[in-house]
Amino acid sequence: MEILLKVILVLIFNSMQVYLVYHYFNKFFVLKVELKTFIKIMFIILLLSKFIPIQVSAFTKMLSFLLLLWLGVNICFRSTISKLIYHITFFSLLILLAEMILSIVVQYFALQIIENPNIIWIYFISNSLSQLLVLILIKLIVKQKQEDAAELDRDEYLLLSIIPMFSLISIYWIERYKMIPLIIPCLFYLTINVCLMLLYYRMTNKNFEIQKNMISSIQNEFYEKNMKDQKENAKLRHDLKNILLNLDYYLSNNDIQSARNMLYQITDIKINSYKIISGCIPIDAILDSKIMKMENNKIKYEMDIQVPENLKFENDIDIAAILGNLIDNAIEAIIRYENQENGKIIIQIKYNSYKVIIKIKNPTEYIESDLKKHQIKSMKGRNRLGIGISSIKDRVDKLGGYYDFSSVNNEFVSLVIIPIKHNR
Question: Which residue numbers delimit the Sensor histidine kinase NatK-like C-terminal domain (predicted)?
Fold first, then answer.
């Protein structure tokens, strides 16, 4: 009966560890097998770690657990080697330290009641509490994780792996040479590694901000050039009548050479064919390029543009970037839409009471979003927010505007309202 009880408790404890492995690694990696398959594989692998002989050294036990965990995670999750090294060593360290801290405390009481028949339950409860401690620490860590944080490179992951790896090795030496109370270094190592993990997220968040700023800078240059070309084109259209009158004068007076020179000057200028949609250059410059993109992708669209030609924006680049990113998101959604031939993008831009109201609708079959936080998951990577969405939020906040994203009846609606200073 006692043996059966031990087996049941081991299976329960093993199931707890499977849950911890999933809860931790699923936050950082993409699961490449079905959840049921993951549970079976990880349950067997972690169960094997329970059958490591008691006679072997602590270092051998630790190494065996690391290798088995590596095998299971590598089979079930998609990741780079450097990222895998860091997260496996850190997770193993959390497990080991939590178990050691509670086992040291429990052993003290176990020695007082060594004859007590409930000693099995005491060890089971202590191990369960250690798993609970690990779960709390994991939740604390992943709570600090910014969803759109950029990935670290190989060297950064390898550098981060040094501290948890050395901590694991140090614990082996401390246990072998008991010169100080073991609970003290355990608490110390636990603290520094949790702090290290928090530092890790600060680094990824910083990398994301750098990446976002670089992309915003590239966007600014693109939209600035686009509007410059549009203004140049508008100037040429304005001057076209005078140019034609001059050509007519030269030809009427048989001054062929002068007419030819004027034609050379005209044809030497690069003229982009822009469509005049509203007459407002910052808006037309973006709409023109996005219309071309939609037509190239055979995407149906409908536009309702009601803005004055002389509308002046405080920052043309921000307006262009906001509108461009909104339409790009709609185009991307239509391209992913299974019934693309029936999908249509509806673009509405209106000016009213010193506000520009931009509303864009597009059909969608799947939106992974947190609408309360106005966050939309990017399809380009797991657990990442699209940089375009983040750019929209930042630029709208900068202009003192309002944004809202909603999904109703398989239709996604983006709404942005930008206040405009009084145009004189």
Answer: 317-419
